[in-house]
Design goal:
Length: 423
């Protein structure tokens, strides 16, 4: 027990040292004190997540990933070849080796390459954690810090007068430091999305910074592996952002035109080929959620049809379920649901505040603001159309909150000067 606490303490200090010394963090504009505060908040959220899931939810996904990675690690002592095959080899097949088949039988997600990748990472981390789950969480917190600071650095370039509010929204939102730092795909996706927008901004300012092209390719590869729908959603948003910046076109018209063309293209492809029918894919994803994935917090949603008309008709329902239902669904339920309810209420109030403020005091909005809003809305529509579980909706939307809430925060006009706080 003493060794486990000591090892955890060592890794917490090592990553804290890296955060206070590496230029990616120190050049962010966030002081060392607040970098460490943000790091501490994320650690608290991740430790709390692990404790809650282990005591109230029979471990949940994160503990299952850890336990399965322990089985993969233990395979090394049976036969080192088995370990390397589990970590670096292919999956989703039935091995002919009886001993190897016995090893993989209790390993969950063997047939799901995207989720199995999380097991691969955890199996590698087992060498550093000595079987301590909370050491794994420290690594994931560091991944989350990379993404969150990348978001902050990008937002600071476009909205330099809102840095205090940006920090609060990025580091103090419960979903971001709770689910966005957890040992699952959401933490890695948040990291990749933060680095993606950071790299895009760097290229827009200097297209000869070739290293950032590599970052974009790496992030797109991660999206394709974890959340392939993000690649499709990012395409029109990024094109409109770059066109607006490069050609100095009016951003709102550029985004409207880009999304109209994209929508028409999707409709056309749905008529040309069944394999290219995105609306059919939406129906299939929803079908899996409704029929096979059940849990506390399930809600009733209408079945989609493989047509653009069906998706369009259900847009209001999708937005209602991503914004309103998490608030109304948890009022009379457990404390965990009430926390989700509170955060959802704050998000609704922020939207209302932003709309009223912009109506009475409109401000000039840059292309990146439209990028944040366009990507957020399309991502939330996708979640709302396909997902019939409140917990899943709240967790999935965490990925987009670092773009959505700061974009709304800009409309409030709550600058550093109005807050009366110096950076």
């Amino acid at each position: 027990m003493f060794f486990s606490f000591f090892l955890l303490f060592v890794y917490v200090i090592l990553f804290a040292y890296a955060i206070t010394r590496h230029s990616f963090f120190t050049k962010s504009g966030i002081t060392t004190k607040y970098l460490l505060l943000g790091y501490g908040i994320k650690l608290f959220g991740d430790f709390a997540s692990g404790y809650i899931y282990s005591h109230w939810y029979s471990g949940g996904d994160t503990w299952e990933y850890f336990d399965c990675s322990k089985l993969m690690h233990d395979a090394f002592y049976v036969n080192p070849r088995y370990y390397f095959q589990l970590v670096f080899g292919s999956c989703n097949y039935t091995p002919t080796d009886a001993e190897f088949l016995k090893i993989i039988t209790p390993i969950a997600h063997w047939s799901d390459e995207r989720t199995y990748f999380i097991l691969r990472i955890n199996a590698i981390l087992q060498w550093f954690s000595f079987g301590n789950y909370y050491v794994h969480t420290v690594f994931w917190v560091f991944f989350s810090m990379l993404g969150t600071v990348a978001f902050y650095r990008t937002l600071k370039v476009y909205f330099p007068n809102y840095t205090i509010f940006m920090y609060v929204l990025l580091f103090l939102q419960p979903s971001i430091f709770f689910w966005g730092s957890g040992v699952h795909k959401d933490g890695l996706t948040l990291m990749a999305l933060g680095l993606y927008v950071f790299a895009c901004q760097k290229i827009l300012f200097d297209y000869k910074k070739w290293q950032f092209y590599g970052v974009i390719i790496l992030c797109l590869g991660m999206f394709y592996y974890f959340r392939p729908h993000l690649v499709l959603l990012l395409l029109p948003a990024t094109i409109a952002w770059f066109l607006s910046e490069w050609y100095k076109w009016q951003a709102k018209y550029t985004f409207v035109a880009t999304y109209l063309v994209s929508a028409l293209l999707l409709v056309l492809l749905s008529y040309l080929s069944m394999d290219l029918n995105v609306f059919r894919k939406l129906m299939q994803i929803q079908y899996v959620f409704i029929l096979y994935l059940h849990g506390e917090g399930d809600i009733s949603i209408p079945f989609l049809q493989p047509t653009w008309q069906s998706a369009l008709v259900n847009v209001p329902m999708a937005l209602y379920n991503t914004f309103i239902t998490p608030f109304t669904n948890g009022i009379y339920r457990s404390i965990q649901h009430q926390l989700v309810t509170t955060e959802s209420l704050v998000l609704l109030l922020l939207i209302l505040w932003a709309v009223i403020s912009y109506y009475f005091r409109p401000i000039k909005l840059v292309a990146f603001w439209y990028f944040c809003i366009a990507l957020s809305i399309t991502f939330l529509l996708l979640i709302g159309l396909t997902t019939d579980n409140i917990g899943a909706i709240v967790r999935y939307r965490t990925i987009i909150l670092p773009l959505l809430t700061p974009a709304l925060g800009i409309l409030t006009g709550l600058t550093n000067q109005r807050l009366g706080i110096k950076e």
